[in-house]
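YM 10:42: Formate dehydrogenase iron-sulfur subunit sequence, as discussed on the call
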Amino acid sequence: MTFSATPIGGSIKVFVPRDAAARSVGADKVAERIEAAAKATGQQIEVVRNGSRGMLWLEPLVEVETPQGRVGYGPVAPEDVDGLVAAGMLDGAALTVGAYLGVVEELPWMKRQQRLTFARVGVIDPRSADDHAEYEGNAGLRKALSMTPAEVVEEVVDSGLRGRGGAGFPTGIKWRTVLGAESDLKFVCCNADEGDSGTFADRMLIEGDPFTLIEGMTIAAYAVGATEGYVYLRSEYPDAVETLNAAIRTARDRGWLGKNILGSDLVFDLHVRVGAGAYICGEETSMLESLEGKRGMVRAKPPIPALEGLFGRPTVVNNVLSLATIPTILANGAATYAGYGMGRSLGTNVFQLGGNVARGGIVETAFGITLGELVSDLGGGTASGRPTRAVQVGGPLGAYLPVEQFDLPMDYEAFAAVGAMVGHGGIVVFDETVDMSAMARFAFEFCAEESCGKCTPCRVGAVRGVETIDRIRNGEDRKKNLVLLDDLCDLMTDGSLCAMGGLTPLPVRSAVRHFGKDFGA
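YM 10:58: structure's back
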């Protein structure tokens, strides 16, 4: 599903992203210079601050609305603006300078995608309720309100949607459990504590289309019988915090939150809570502890949050992308969504390309695209121009994969079969200069730094792991210490209370297995 706009008389619409990535490279100044240049030439324009299209190597990306579609120019520096305007940029002219890109929707990067969750991101003004409504916003919520809560839950089950936060648990099954739980109060919690290295899709969705997240959470509330919702958002995302809070205020004013939502009997309100920067709060029970005002530490299970979650009440806990995908599932039907993907990995996922990559950004496509297509074709290989040596998929707890496995399809089961995980969809690229023994050491170091400390295998095991790899790197009894390292990985995998310690061995073992020479093996 894609949206494109055509001009409707009056002033020319010029789009300059307000996404944090675009702002970091001068988008605000570019917008100011465009307004000043248009005023100086007497041209009537309206500058719209949209979200990013996800082509981060082209930011700031300026788009001009024309009868043929939105024509792009990028990257545009503030000092480029006057020359581009003089050359006809505000008329959508096909300039001979390098900044001219053509119709954005026709660019290869965009045409390779199937944008469902990100359909509106980069297209609309994220703070405009009118834009959200114009581009089929709330269609999913209206459809849900015409169904029974149980029917909504089963629609999500039938879609095959699995949690996009990393665990891949079926979303509808979680909702079914909360719906069936007896309680006078239930919650919907969105975990937006996006702490994995190489991941930024949650941030881009919130900054580029916050009303879709609000709509998804409202549908979840209706489906399970919740009346309160919380978005746990990391403090390192100040732009996302501001954008989401503004959208929530607007939604309340429009009757999209609060009492009698869209004229129905539904009552649901939403609040933002800002985390303090603990990676462990990406784990659902640690997040719930933090929301309750406690130190972010993992809870023992059972009970599961679906039965005893926030303040001991039944709670839906989902990731941003999971909840933001719900509106398109309800609007278009479970069968349509399940028509994308492969095997048990149905629908689309938002993959994020980062690290040493030529074309970093986000790609939303159906499950089944290969790792090589993402890294080499869409990503363009390394930014350094050197050969790719390894990629880490799934954040700092994900496995390192060599180029020999680039034919691996992006699929939960296919990755699990080779000792890897898709996780949140982050892909970090490394060239031939990377020392994989150092990267394995970093996995333990990261775990030692971010462990909540509740269980010994994680708290102590990570420290012992750093010490063991240091001995291997220094050439001390390498064979003996490699055996010790393997035993330590077994202990952490089997004995840790949560995925923090349980998955830390994944990058370590994959680095040893695929890049043994870096360990002196």
